[in-house]
Amino acid sequence: MELQNSDIREEFYTHIHDMKPKWWMRWGILIVFIVIVIIFILGYVIKYPDVISSEIKLTTNEPSITLPIAKGAQIENVLIKNNSDVSINENLVVLKSNANYKDVLLLDDELKKIPLENNEYVISFFDRFLSKNLQLGNIIENDWIAFSNELLTLYKIKRLDSYQSQINFLEEELIRQNHLKLLYKGLTVNDEKQQKLIGAKLRTDSILFSKNVTSQIEYNTYQQNYYSRKSDLEQNKLALSRTDLEITRLQNNIKNFKNNEREGLLTQQLNIRKSLNKLRSSIATWKENFMLISPINGKASFIQNLENKKFMDGNAIIITPKGNSFYGLVNIPILGAGKLKIGQKVIIKLNDYPYREFGVLTGRLEELYPVANEKTYIGKVKFLDSNYSSYNKRIMIKENMIGIAEIITNDRNLLERIFEKFLYAFNKK
Length: 429
Prior knowledge:
3 domains, 53% helix, 6-stranded antiparallel sheet, Helix Hairpins, Elongation Factor Tu (Ef-tu), domain 3
């Protein structure tokens, strides 16, 4: 019985050993092997990156500027159109006031042109504006009157010749005194010559009188003539001295008037400069209160419907800098932030433009600030093209737009990801 069972088992083993797999089994094993190989190959070839998603907010190198209107203000005139290009210091909107804004702007433009060192130009300015009835309002009016009075003083000095007329009069008097001095000099010289002749004759007469050649009466007459001529000579010398004193006085007065004129001009120029600065300051105050003025070059867009005679308040105009470039600020979660590197690709999905319809924008991680706050790092994203999306659709970028930024980190294949989990589980044990 045991021998029989042994023969049966041997026959069964021989049958199994000699039996060949059928064709479908051989193909099945081959296919399974090929599939396993393909899976390993695909697991090695197929790579995809890790993505770190974060919120992004768009901003610019030069932020836009919003111009508000005070509550209860009435618009007098809108000087620009919506979405128009404006330049720095350009007047945009005029609000209602008790001044004529055209007069204020005219005066402001003219004051900017005044060269204070040129008195003639300042006086010509006074001539031109003397007859103008400017409506400048209570903020500017008093300072304009003070400035006009200073100009009037300068006008009197230069045009009415308040100093020069005195100088001219003194110079004419000086000419007369010099002429009189020459006259007295001539008389003095003549008197001195006659005095010498009369003195010589008197000495001769005294000799003749001592010898009784001439009478006492004749001798007394000669003496009287001598002393009379001597008195005339002294009078002429005294008059000449007085003339010299008068000439000196006139010369000093002329010099003083000229000095006073120069000092008066310098003082008046200083007064004009002070009053001009005060006037400009009051004009600046008026413009600050009753005008919207562009502080930068850019594009002006209306936030509200601006119309003449309309009462309104709040933000009225926003000015976007011309030629400004946008960039994004991203709040990157701390988890996984170690994978980030400068230059990594960033995909931006804007909330204003659904990405399934408009596509996405692309950029690069340009800066990564090393200090984190409680939960995030701050990164800066530079756009590769902020005008067109991946669907080649036009995107109108605006400041403070928000969206989602997906930062693409290093690619890893499927095998790495699978074995990474096994390795982590093994190390954990």
